[in-house]
Amino acid sequence: MEDQTDSAENTTPSEALTPPPPKRTLRQKIVARWRAIAGWFSRLWSELRPGAPARRGGKWGLAVATAIAAVIGAEYLNSGFGLWVDYLFAFAVAGILVGISCLLIPLLLTILRKLPRLTTAIVFGSLIIYTLAFNLPPLGSAIGIIACVTAALVGGMIASLASGGFQASTSRAKVIFLTLLVVSITATAGTVAFLSDDGTLEGIIKADSKSPPPLALQAANPGEPGPYKFRVVTYGSKGANPRRPEYNNPGVTTPTVDASRFFKDFQGWKADLRKKYWGFGMDKLPLNATVWIPEGPGPFPLVLIVHGNHGMSEFSDPGYQYLGELLASRGFILATIDENFLNSGLFHDPPKQQAVRGWMLLEHLKLWRDWSKDANNPLHVAIDFTKIALMGHSRGGEAAATAALFNNLAYYPDDANIRFDYHFPIQSVVAIAPADGQYKPAGAARIIEDVNYFTIQGANDADVSSFMGSPQFDRVKYPHGGDWFKSELYIYRANHGQFNTVWGRSDAGYPLGWFLNLKPLMDAESQRKIARVYLSAFLEATLKGHREYIPLFRDTRVVKAWLPDTLYMNRFQDAAYQAIAEFNEDADLTTTTAAGGKLEGSDLSVWREGRIPFRHGDRGYNGVFLGWNHKGEDDKDDPKIRPSYSITVPPAAKLNAQSSLIFSIAALDQDAPRLHEDAKKDSAKKDDKKKDAKKKDRESPDFTLELSTADGTAVSHPLSDFGIVMPPFKVQFTKLSLLDDVGYEKSSEPAFQTITIPLAAFGTAGKAIDPASIKTIRLKFDRTPASMILISKIGIE
Hints:
This protein is α+β, with helices and mostly antiparallel strands and 797 residues long.
């Protein structure tokens, strides 16, 4: 009671009457904190809020950024109607987009009533323009944001300094503004430096093999000029080429050809615009070419080459002058064909042009057949009309194969109302980084017969990023036997465009080309040196009978001194090849393609048959996937694990002393699991393996090849005694791994090396074994501890 009395005596009347403040709820605390933060931002904005001069300067800066985006679009639009038309179009689009943005954004901001309408409208319009200019929505928008922010800040700063507004602002406002300005300018400089840089050499692979080099080829270098002088002549459809004066007044006049039957569905404004641009429609396509002709009695083989798809206003046919000069000096007639009027431009590709590209080559051959019979024609030269080759680059490579198909048909496969009657003695087809499957005759894959075929591809091709000539290689058939052969060459650090002097180093064009990783590419002259050697050697071998050049199509190492220092893969097959196993005949892993054989695996951690993959999709046919890993459960090499793959030779395989075994093998960019590896552990490691896959260097896999006879004699050799299975040619196409993942998916794809193994090399005690007695071919995976390989063909030659 005393305590209560003392307490009452010490309390004033006002305190006794005032109730204690109510305790705030959580919601009230959040609201109070939010109001405090909003108040702080309001006070900060009042300090930072730019004055009228700064806002005007920012708008001018944004206008400049928008104009720069329009200039980029105009420079790389390349419509063909002239630069002033491109600029007019780009600025018109920019004006329309900003105008639309000025209508839509203020309407939106009327609802929001917060942001400055006109400024925000210009910002959004600029972002749309940048996104369209770069054709990459995330990156284009990011670059647009950097450009707009920097331009607005720089413009605002200049105007604010000129009006004195910056000097009158608070210290805190100056610091924040200058910080933003420095950051944005730094980001802009970094973006410009990134886009202008060639890229990185990180991840470049090297192949270190102990395989003994083969004997050097004893022949003259076909990439060097020959003894012939030559002249250059043009022919064209006079008066039909307003955009190509060199063909409008040619040395020899040609008729036009009517391709309108192929383009029955090509009508409307696109067809009208293309006709307006070129001065002719699809009913009057000109037959134009530049020809390099050797001087001398002849007769000379005839070679036609046609370009692929490129911007139609940047003419592609002059890009093969280097081949024309070389081949003419070596006694070939080479004509580079103009088909630029079938190329992309004016916002579209003409439909069905892929088929017409091949048809046009045959129409050019009709001219040469007539000229060879007309002594009064300036192009009446001694042509060996039994020796004809067709060559093409990109879509032109597909066109050359299409022409070889059409040459033997009576009707166009997609419309029998178009009749064919050609039947030229085409001996050889060359496909340089070709497309494939863009035209499918009657919806089916293109099969051509009884021609020599060669295809060449760069592993760093950022346009045709998969080796599309390789499936066509497999669809070249030799049902009648003969001296035919087919070959492919896959080149590390070579791209798509440098095979043509017009196309150049960037396979994507600009501004997209600014994102490509160009630094790993070999220089243009080195890439064309490879083309000179191989294309000339192929024509020498197939049109002039110089068979001494065939070994370089089996193994590039025989002509190492002639070629740039890079990595190569060769695939080869001739008409004498007989298949043992090609893995397409059925679902049984143990059966061979030739009847009566047997396939067996032992201690393999991977053994399956399946589609051979590309970067995108697959080749449409099978191979066998083999993986081995010598490690046991304790992660140490287990001597009990002896992986092998055996082929019991089918009775139909008639082996003799001149026979060779043929293996078509690719190393895979995959880790082979351990035998009996626990599935859960394997799954846990999967993510780490994916992260490391691009960085991990792969070695060239090697194994022992053992041949066993009926009496139990076994003789073996390392595979590396006969050739190298190259590691995967891993490529970083762009400067950003994200773009690689989206645009190219995989850093490599299987490309095959043919290993030719003469049976005469096998023997015991200095005596060769009898090939006819060989019963088993065994691949013993004892030389590389762990690896994954893919085999597409096993056969004899």
